Amino acid sequence: MSATTDPATSPFEPPGVPGPPPGGRSPAAACDLPETCSRLPGLGQHRSDPLWLAPPQLPPWPIVWFALEGGPAAGQAHRAIHLWGLAVDDGDREPVPEAITADFEDAGGRRAWERFVARAGETMERRPDARWVHCSPDERASVQACAAAYGTPAGLLARLEEAFFELLSRGVRRAVRLPLDPCSIRQVAGLAGFRWRSPRPGPAGSISKYLEAQASADPVEQARIVQALADSNAEELLAMRAVWRWMLEQGPREYCG
């Protein structure tokens, strides 16, 4: 079974971009950054408030928000990715999340990768300057593993790797110290005011759900599970966008200290 979220038919309705985060969050543990400047006016004086260190260094639009479902298996990272999610964002309207999912046959992972590669190539042709923003090193590693296992058109992998921008390490942690432990996209987006609709299953949970769908003999149940995974992935894409906009709106315009 293979599914791509159709903007016209998907039941997922993306939440709106949030405003400034509320103060007085907890816990007090923070992301691992030195405390090099004082809090800015308007953020309060509690340990649980964000501590801005520098103006956010974020590339401009257009952006391609990028997230995966699955996780690397030992020596077989390419076989564990069952959903490739992306949303093209020109900055002037809410982006429409897309999901490319693997069918349940032995070659399902390869076919999903080939469809993703085709979509990525098309997107890069239309928006050659777009940065592909993702949460962690896992997305880059998974793309590299699939490229090694299945191949890519000439030059596409190099172009993707050049376009990648890791949001948490290169964007968030260099600009702001947050009262979060762990410092995950779910935690950061919540601090930024993003309203999550459902718990993220995580790599293990996502794989478990996909395997549950694969083992089911009921096409309706399979479609329900796949759609739930697509909706969860879409929510992560929009959460990254919410964090991005929050940093642009709330971050300092000049360096601290």
Description:
This protein is of the alpha/beta class and 257 residues long. 40% of the residues lie in helices and 12% in strands. It has one domain (51-250): Nucleotidyltransferase, domain 5. The chain has helices spanning 108-126, 137-150, 156-163, 167-175, 185-191, 202-215, 219-250; strands at 51-52, 63-70, 81-89, 98-101, 131-134, 164-166, 176-177. The strands form two sheets. Strands 4-3-2-5-6 form a five-stranded mixed beta sheet, sandwiched between helices. A two-stranded antiparallel ribbon has the order 1-7. Helix 5 packs across helix 7 (219-250) and helix 6 packs antiparallel against helix 7 (219-250). The chain starts with 50 loop residues before the first strand and ends in a 7-residue tail after the last helix. 35% of the residues are buried.
